[in-house]
Amino acid sequence: MIHLILRFQYDLKKRTIMRASKTKAFSTMWLILLLLVVSLAGCGWCFWGGHCDGDGTGTPDTTAPTVSSSDPADAAIDVGIDSGITATFSEALDPSTITAETFTVTGPGTTPVSGTVAYDVPSNIATFAPTSNLAPDTEFTVTITTGVEDLAGIALASDIVWTFTTAPGAPVPDTTAPTVSSTSPADGATGVAINQRIAATFSERMNVSSIIAAFTVTGPGATSVTGTVAYDVASKIATFTPAGNFATNTDYMATLTTGVRDLAGNGLTSVFEWSFTTGVTLDTTAPLVNSTNPANAATGVVINTKITATFNEAMNPSTITTAAFTVAGPGATPVSGNVTYAAVGNTATFTPAGNLIPNTSYTATITTAVRDLAGNALAVNKDWMFTTAATSDTTAPLVSSTNPANTATNVPINQSINATLSEAMDPSTITTASYTVTGPGATSIIGTVSYDVASFIATFDSTTDLAPNALFTARITTGVEDLAGNALANDFVWTFTTAPDTTPTGPAPVVLGTAGDFVILAKSGIDTVPNSVVTGDIGVSPIDSTAITGFSLVLDASTTFSTSTQVTGMVFAADYTAPTPAIMTTAVSDMQTAYTDAAGRTNPTATELGAGNIGGMTLAPGLYKWGTGVLISTDVTLSGGPNDVWIFQIAGGITQASATSVILTGGALPKNIFWQSFGAVALDTTAHFEGIILCQTEITLATGASINGRLLSQTAVTLDQSTVTQPAP
After folding, report:
1. pLDDT of residue 83
2. Which of 164, 170, 153 is nearest to 93 (CA)?
3. Contact indicator for 238, 230 with CB cutoff of 8 Å
4. What whole-number distance in Å separates Cα of residue 43 and Cα of residue 39?
């Protein structure tokens, strides 16, 4: 553009010589063109290379950059020997000014620490990575000099200096893999605002560049979402900001690959994914501060407390800084401290650099600079006051209760694991590093944690269902601290056992319809040699009640059913008063339909098992088929759970030897066992049977034989002092 202007100026001068009479006109044209170009550039200062404040007024940036947070924090102790050192700045810097000369670490004393310096542009984070492990139990000093400048060339107002001390003892490198403590939105969330950022909180400090390369969002399907990734060191939160709004009513998947690494180079043990579904609207609602600790006007506050504010929704951690969250003492004197944000409780925490002054009033303020993940700011500043006591809090917190309780059994496999603490806790200390669940054995469970500020309840949610019928161990470590910095005195450990697997195996059950209302149902008659014991209703159709013999029936006054001393239930027949005939017709039809269903099942688990003799076998749930009859010569066992299903397709009949039994183990139930028999079924003396018999012909129980199940015959049923009990529903 400048070239064009100069070219135009040259042509203008040339034409002025040739056409002096038109000098004024062309000069005017030149002025108009210059003004147009300047206007398109936004403002004159920006156009000619100045740094503008962005409002089009041409006001240059004269504000010095500051360090918003550092990690380790000033005066931190027990810092890992393989830790990197980071500083987050208040604005974008000139990367060329972040060097090994302007960002240094020394210790012990003035001994320089060898390392490399890097600067991440999206997050405004400078990192010093030592070339080898730091010395243990040693104080180190970090210095960032005034040689550091922002993009307008404005330097730090003064050198930034802070110290930290490494953990004592022999050097122990960090070999623990990082984990994801929480996400926003949560896995499976629906109705997510289409302008929301996607965030993940880690259990420890992470390598910035590794997150930027390994944090992606896709949807719909495998379509990549364009966006930028930032990492907030203080909160350990990575944020994905889409380039535009998400599509409405669409499924998305967020992914963190194993390329994500902590400062020691340890990666995630497996890819971490979570899904969410958008709604149809933008989030334009301002966030709120739900609660504070101390509460407004609180008195007797311990002098070593941290000051917290809990929001009603997830916040953008990069906006929660020492400029946006301040505490002031007498005469509006600012309190020096660090500010962090914990996604597990949507809580911002101000940690004073030292104890507060006893018996003194303080004012805490959170400004409208803080924003939620959709970019909405607080509507107004949040101010609250409190007055300190003369003492510190030195009492360790306790775990008051857990759910499930210690040694609990039959715990649902999808249950959240809760621990209630005895007092308000520092949410930033409740992570997947300090709150773990393992099982079976030492297998670590992948999950997320949360903390409810009002109830003091910490919750662990597994990303998948727990294994059934297994022992699990939950642990809250001494890494968990209260707001005064007091840790648990000891790790708190409890165990629980999940419920057995209730997922059915085997084929789908046979639907009996109204035939399932009868313990005995026959088309041509039911006969008994007294006295039999029958529990449940019995009935015949299309034959009439004269085909029910040996029961000494007594017709009820309603004439719709009869009773018998041998039957705990009612007796129905096709010749009784309406609606009984129609009920019996439907029941017999449903019996025939169930028989056809059972006989038509395909893909058997086994065929011709034992050449038809299944005595002595133990059979798992499944579909079994024979082209002959089946003999139960000795006891046969059916082993499975209460929802498992067995179907036996038998082209011949069923013969059960005297004094043998069908035995159920593992919780198997007779209501889920179906014996489809084309031929006659004969249970010999004192034999015991389990399951529902769907028989094309007759069913006979010899003297003393018994069954837990149903006898559904398309001809007749004969009992001889037998016991027939309907299965439990």
Report:
1. 73
2. 153
3. yes
4. 6
Entry pTM:
0.62
Query: Can you tell me the distance from the alpha carbon of 239 to that of 341, in angstroms, rounded to the nearest whole number?
Result: 13
Confidence check: pLDDT of 602 > 60:
yes
In a domain, 506, yes or no: no
207/232 same-domain check: yes
Give a three-class secondary structure readout of 701-714: ECCCCEEEEEEEEC
Last residue of a domain, one of 388, 417, 448: 388
Residues 151 and 71 in one domain: yes
Determine contact, residues 710/520, Cβ cutoff 8 Å. yes
Using the predicted structure, report yes or no on whether residue 573 has a pLDDT greater than 90. yes
Q: Is residue 423 part of a domain?
A: yes
CA-wise closest residue to 214 among 263, 174, 254, 265? 254
Task: For residues 194-220, give the mean pLDDT.
Answer: 92
Contact 682, 700 (CB under 8 A): yes
Report how many domains make up the chain. 6
In a 13 Å sphere around the CA of 600, the CA atoms on its Cβ side amount to 7
Q: What is the pLDDT of residue 600?
A: 97
Range of the domain at 189: 180-278
R_g of the chain computed on alpha carbons: 39
Structure tokens at 15: 């034409």
Could you give the CA distance from residue 101 to residue 117 in angstroms, rounded to a whole number? 9
Same domain, 602 and 637: yes
Q: Are strands 125-130 and 115-120 parallel, antiparallel or unpaired?
A: antiparallel
3-state secondary structure of 655: strand
438 & 522 share domain: no
pLDDT of 90: 83
> Do residues 377 and 250 share a domain?
no
User: Which residues on neighbouring strands pair with residue 241, listed in sequence order?
Assistant: 228
Q: What average pLDDT is seen over the chain?
A: 89
Same domain? For 241 and 378 the reply is no
Q: Please tell me whether residues 533 and 672 are part of one structural domain.
A: yes
Q: Do 257 and 376 belong together in one domain?
A: no
